[in-house]
Amino acid sequence: MLIAVAVIQSASDPPGIADALAPTPPMGWNDWNAFGCDVSAGLVQHTADLMVDNGMKAAGYRYVNIDDCWMLPHRNAAGDLVPDPVKFPGGIRAVADYVHARGLRLGIYEDAGTKTCEGYPGSLGHERQDAARFAAWGVDYLKYDNCHNAALTTRAQYLARYSAMREALKATGRAIVYSICEWGEQQPWTWAPGMAELWRTTHDIKDDYAHLLRNYTQNVDLHAFARPGAWNDPDMLEVGNGGMSTAEYRAEFSLWAVMAAPLLAGTDLRTISAADRAIYLNRQVIAVDQDAAGHQGVPVSREHGHWVVVKRLSNGDRAVVLFNAGDAPARFGTTAAAAGLPSAPGYLLTDLWSKATVVSAGDIRASVSPHSVVMYRVAVTLRRPTR
Ligand code: GLA
């Protein structure tokens, strides 16, 4: 006899296996950029509370992710990974329960080699056992790194190492978002869609403009490979960490959004300034990132470092980022036709940072300061052009 089982979940429940894992790019927080190895249950739980209190949860940030250095340097006698009892006195399960009780989800970190980048035990050859632990602890997201990879560096060996963990996660029966972190070494965009929900396309970001520009440039042309459930990941956000100007942080957030990148805050939410928090909370920019159609923006021009990136949105609007990557102010842009919009009496341009609106006859153009963006949402309108 067949028995139909209905699984009813409340909004705060962790996901079941039947949920689409990442229909839009994952949003959340990760400790690495701001804290390195200085991670602990206290920090993660405090951050979860802050995400509820400061509006980030309501704005869509959902994952609270633990990076490297959460475990002891050796497996136990049973071969299991052991959370560092000083950093995580109640283990990972207690942190997962805490985070889930606030309607958020927990992420963890491991490595597809013999050791993590910081020298803790890796999962190579232990995939089933480690995935089973993560599932038993209530983990919802795994970032899987590439250090100490035992010289298994051909593409076939990358595929084998990374698919072993995918299979192991699947075998747990728990829905766990799988984030491949092999830094773009073996063009994961060509093989990771369908295996992972997201994959890093670059080496590590740092809190400076040169790294922002490098990661952006390496990621922006990979738009053909992104789709709902499969996202290019140019690394976590540095907004708030102090090494860049507010304009540069707005540029980072806008470019990541137009590229449909994961939005993982990488800063200390206990001490973040109001100005930087406002960047993370810009709902209209978030809506561009999270648009249901799941297109990654396409660069339509880039001459002299004057980038124009256009993202087609599910309601037919276009998000247009004008990014001046250079060192001198410049006036540049595109047209509604080049952005793929149909002919119309006018085009309503909403500046997603200043909130100013203007009706254009077709020009999508602005004066852009160095290292800065102007970001528009453009809609067709019956209103007559005001410029
Ligand atoms: C690698 C990853 C980083 C971070 C560190 C942790 O460098 O790319 O994002 O996870 O390891 O050791």
Would you kindly provide a written description of the structure presented here, covering whatever features stand out?
The chain has helices at residues 32-35, 41-53, 56-59, 91-101, 127-137, 155-172, 209-220, 246-258, 274-280, 283-289; strands spanning 27-30, 63-65, 105-111, 141-145, 177-180, 198-200, 231-233, 263-265, 298-301, 306-312, 318-324, 330-335, 346-351, 357-360, 363-368, 372-381. It is an alpha/beta fold and 387 residues long. The protein is built from ten helices and 16 strands. Helix 7 (209-220) links the parallel strand 6 and strand 7. An eight-stranded parallel sheet has the order 7-6-5-4-3-2-1-8. Strands 9-10-11-16-13-14 form a six-stranded antiparallel sheet, covered by helices on one side. It has a two-stranded antiparallel ribbon with strand order 12-15. The structure holds alpha-D-galactopyranose (GLA). Alpha-D-galactopyranose (GLA) is lined by residues 32, 67-68, 109, 116-118, 145, 181, 183, 204.
Index terms:
alpha/beta; 8-stranded parallel beta sheet; single chain; 387 residues; binds alpha-D-galactopyranose
